[in-house]
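Sequence, please.
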């Protein structure tokens, strides 16, 4: 707010300080040779803005590509996960059917023989002396 009022006051003072012919000459040719620095500065700023817009556009396209790749990877992993879940379910069912088929054959064996085989230690269970 203060800067705005100072700017307008300075412009009014500058306009009042100029003679009418000087005002007309300033209004007719705003970019004279004395303003060449401002002209090149304006050109530089325009070029810098164009470059910054191009960089922003490039970054946006790169981000879209990364997002697209990550979505495809998530979709692929989801499909793979579903396939593996199905395979695990199938294998679990197979194991259960095999276990149910084997259990009647174990029941037909003599229970005393099963107990005796469980009580007898195996050879690998004996302690071994190390020299």
């Amino acid at each position: 707010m203060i800067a705005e009022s100072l700017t307008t006051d300075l412009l009014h003072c500058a306009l009042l300080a100029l003679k009418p012919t000087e005002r007309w000459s300033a209004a007719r040719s705003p970019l004279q040779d004395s303003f060449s620095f401002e002209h090149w500065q304006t050109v530089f700023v325009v070029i810098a803005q164009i470059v910054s817009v191009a960089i922003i556009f490039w970054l946006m396209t790169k981000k879209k590509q990364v997002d697209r790749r990550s979505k495809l990877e998530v979709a692929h992993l989801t499909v793979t996960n579903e396939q593996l879940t199905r395979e695990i379910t199938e294998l679990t069912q197979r194991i259960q059917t095999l276990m149910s088929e084997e259990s009647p054959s174990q029941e037909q064996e003599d229970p005393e023989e099963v107990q005796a085989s469980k009580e007898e230690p195996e050879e690998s269970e004996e302690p071994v002396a190390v020299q």
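The CA atoms of residues 22 and 125 lie 114 Å apart.
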